[in-house]
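Practice problem 4.
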């Protein structure tokens, strides 16, 4: 049944390119579209593009290939990728990163992102997890998102619609022609008709129980709930590797990145007996790829040799200070958390745990899961592009910038071939509108918290780090029942 909601305000916009999400990838997609002389509209769920997305609280490193050293080449990087990803990577799409990163580094510096060490005027390059060579630029990236947002806001051809959650793509004859969502504060229906659409809505979090407690204290940005993937999939787009999950070791009680920085400078991972365990699981020990670190730590915990700890007590004060500066730029609350708990990592071991699983972020170095894209960031659906953690090849923030710029450029090239945006299909819109607002009209039903808790319980029980065929079949059965109940959800307000 289609309900009418005559009191809801309807806002209809037209644009060359609609960008779903206002995070890292979206900033560069919008910049590229504007440079090509087209209009772009960013729809962002969070309060402001100056702080939304994974880099909202800052970052401390960028993967880069700069051709400055013999190992600093496309061939070396792509060759290593095949091993690191155990062959599971499309090298043609991965090559987009290598081709574009130098330009992005130059653009970031021009905008005022302090990528160089002020003391030397050079990049401070270090080895990332699983890497033989120092391909990562370490920098003070605490302010990177406001800097990018300023650059985007300064362009008159970019419209920014914040506090608005896009929920559905509009499709005409297998061609994507826009999207529909609603403003989470005042409830207006937002319709954006576009010549091309870019999904830049990040990865997927909150479908596994959050290890550190509160549902929003996730490792990655809590608003990235996979909506972009769902809307694209329902429109007919192809997804890949959705069985992969991302995990990391985190300080117990605080699901945040940061401690791998200590590992890079020589910190040890030890079990409750004080035994350094990672060499049992990978020849690189603590410098192994992240998935091995997770696996080794899980094996120790399962074998009853936990709790596991990060031991920094042998590091120099300079090394500890260096990582703390990195954390300050990336997740400053972690330092406050450690202080409040009275933990001084230079004097005592820091207990670690495995974070909740999430998806979309890199699986090893490069390949993740999400929308399948080609080297133009195009999906299999005409008019639909994807980039960043929403795409199946991403390379973290550096990749989000590169593929965002590429998606913006190619989406615009496609949009320029079309004379007009399509008109609104009233029938299609009425059905979407009804499904968006129905929970408000339902006096009885499940709350979104109840549905989320059930989802997290099913995923933790049957689809965690260790899976079995029977467990996965049971998960499918339970998820089908959950889907039926989710259709009976009620809502007390728009947010
Ligand atoms: C704390 C932290 C530190 C990190 N540090 C580094 C680092 O130092 N170096 C590095 O390379 N990488 C780092 N990463 C990873 C990196 O930040 C991400 O890989 C990258 O930012 C992904 O960019 P994105 O644009 O795909 O997603 P995001 O930047 O997360 O943006 C997605 C946006 O989409 C919006 N959105 C989602 N759904 C909807 C919807 N339905 N409607 C409208 N909007 C929607 C979200 O609100 C969000 O703003 C870090 C990540 C975290 C969490």
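Answer key:
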């Amino acid at each position: 049944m289609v309900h009418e909601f005559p009191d809801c305000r309807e806002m209809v916009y037209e644009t060359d390119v609609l960008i779903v999400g206002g995070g890292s990838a979206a900033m560069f997609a919008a910049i590229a579209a504007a440079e090509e002389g087209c209009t772009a509209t960013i729809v962002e769920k969070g309060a402001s593009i100056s702080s939304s997305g994974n880099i909202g609280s800052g970052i401390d490193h960028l993967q880069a290939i700069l051709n400055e050293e013999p190992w600093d080449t496309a061939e070396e990087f792509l060759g290593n990728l095949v091993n690191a990803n155990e062959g599971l990577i499309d090298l043609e799409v991965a090559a987009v990163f290598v081709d574009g990163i130098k330009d992005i580094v130059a653009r970031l510096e021009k905008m005022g992102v302090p990528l160089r060490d002020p003391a030397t005027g050079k990049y401070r390059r270090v080895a990332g997890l699983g890497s033989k060579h120092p391909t990562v630029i370490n920098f003070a990236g605490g302010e990177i998102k406001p800097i990018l947002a300023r650059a985007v806001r300064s362009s008159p051809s970019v419209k920014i619609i914040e506090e608005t959650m896009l929920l559905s793509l509009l499709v005409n004859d297998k061609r994507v022609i826009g999207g529909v969502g609603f403003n989470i504060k005042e409830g207006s229906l937002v319709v954006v008709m576009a010549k091309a659409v870019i999904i830049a809505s990040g990865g997927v979090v909150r479908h596994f129980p959050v290890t550190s407690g509160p549902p929003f204290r996730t490792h990655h940005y809590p608003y990235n709930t996979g909506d972009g993937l769902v809307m694209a999939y329902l429109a007919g787009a192809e997804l890949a590797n959705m069985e992969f999950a991302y995990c990391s070791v985190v300080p117990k009680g605080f699901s945040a990145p940061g401690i791998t920085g200590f590992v890079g400078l020589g910190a040890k991972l030890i079990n409750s007996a004080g035994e350094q365990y990672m060499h049992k699981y990978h020849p690189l020990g603590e410098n192994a790829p992240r998935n091995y670190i997770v696996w080794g730590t899980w094996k120790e915990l399962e074998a009853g040799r936990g709790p596991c700890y990060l031991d920094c007590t042998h590091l120099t004060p300079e090394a500890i200070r260096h990582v703390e500066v990195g954390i300050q730029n990336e997740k400053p609350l972690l330092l406050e958390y450690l202080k409040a708990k009275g933990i001084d990592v230079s004097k005592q071991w820091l207990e670690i745990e495995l974070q909740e699983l999430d998806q979309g972020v890199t699986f090893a170095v490069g390949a993740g899961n999400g929308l399948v894209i080609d080297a133009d960031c195009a999906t299999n659906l005409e008019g639909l592009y994807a980039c960043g953690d929403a795409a199946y090849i991403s390379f973290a923030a550096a990749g989000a910038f590169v593929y965002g710029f590429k998606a913006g450029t190619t989406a615009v090239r496609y949009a320029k071939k079309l004379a007009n945006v399509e008109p609104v299909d009233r029938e299609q819109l009425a059905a979407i509108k009804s499904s968006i607002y129905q929970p408000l009209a339902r006096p009885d039903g499940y709350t979104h918290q109840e549905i989320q808790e059930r989802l997290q319980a099913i995923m933790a029980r049957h689809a965690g780090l260790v899976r079995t065929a029977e467990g996965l079949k049971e998960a499918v059965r339970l998820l089908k029942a959950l889907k039926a109940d989710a259709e009976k959800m009620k809502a007390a307000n728009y947010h």
